[in-house]
Amino acid sequence: MELYIFDRELNLQGLVDNFFSLRWTRRYHKTGEFELHTALTSETMELLRRENILWKTDDLEAGCIEHRELTQDNQGKEVLMVRGKFLTNYLGRRIVWGIENLNTTPERVIRVLIDKNCISPDNQDRVIPLLELGELKNYPGSIRLQIGYKNLLEAVENIAETGGLGIRTLLDVQNKKLVFDIYQGLNRIAGQGENPPAIFSREFENIVEQEYFDSLNNYRNLALVAGEGEGVDRELVTVGDGDGLDRYELYVDARDLQSVDENEQPVPPEEYAELLVSRGKSKLAEYKEVQTFDSKINLKNNLRYKEDFNLGDIVTVINKRWGITIDVRITEIEEVYEPGRWEIYCTFGNAVPTLIDKIRQVVR
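RE: above sequence
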């Protein structure tokens, strides 16, 4: 594995020969991130500039350097630390400009939003250079959506999670392109016959360390969605179900959804109700029950990373001592590289919401 550095136009700037530590975190529904520690020299200072792109040769994605820190320890050793996000994070520099009314598959909705705001916008200043859409996969599903003036990356990540889709931006160095790709992981659970199964268990010795989270702290299963209008005239729909102590209610303020389209023509009442239902489903997807295994993987055992399992795959995880067996998606993989050490940590299932996630739930 080698680390190459490019400028924003994908011109090669150099190679990072030696580093102390690299953490490379891949995520399925969201953009990944990285953190690199290396010796502080005039060469690394020049090479690891903000906005330069870091790519490791065994990966399809690359990261943009956003943050640098210079430190000196008590022994006088000087270290340069750089941190950033994968290139999908470029979408976060755009908003959904105007109001879009869309009724199609989640995959096509994402493609339309990216095309209109990053690739073929009316204002050419909004074009993200080198970015293009990858192959249309025609994944099934349906979504009716009205969206406007939201952060584009957050919108895309939310639609991807609701639709069970993975998103990534592939680095095409040879053709100097950034290819936005929508994909789905493979079904590798025990008992299916389509793909070789991937079963993770301490008993199979392919897991070294394991933590299990089973939480309802952030869970909601029924949403009251309020659209246009005031007081008793407010448009209301209910999404989800539950009763008694199994009913976890959520209020969703959707007054931003308009009953007229971009041409100021009325939206039929049944279509407006579908918009409210779609908003409710999208919000409930942010409040899932958390059932997660965080696990350190034994790389010297029966399952080979990126061959027998990969980010986005649905696998079977077993802990017999705890009496737990779940079929669950790999939603995050953190790769750790240090001299003489390579480790990976997998998140199986929905990650526990971070503080930033909870803030976004409130302000959206």
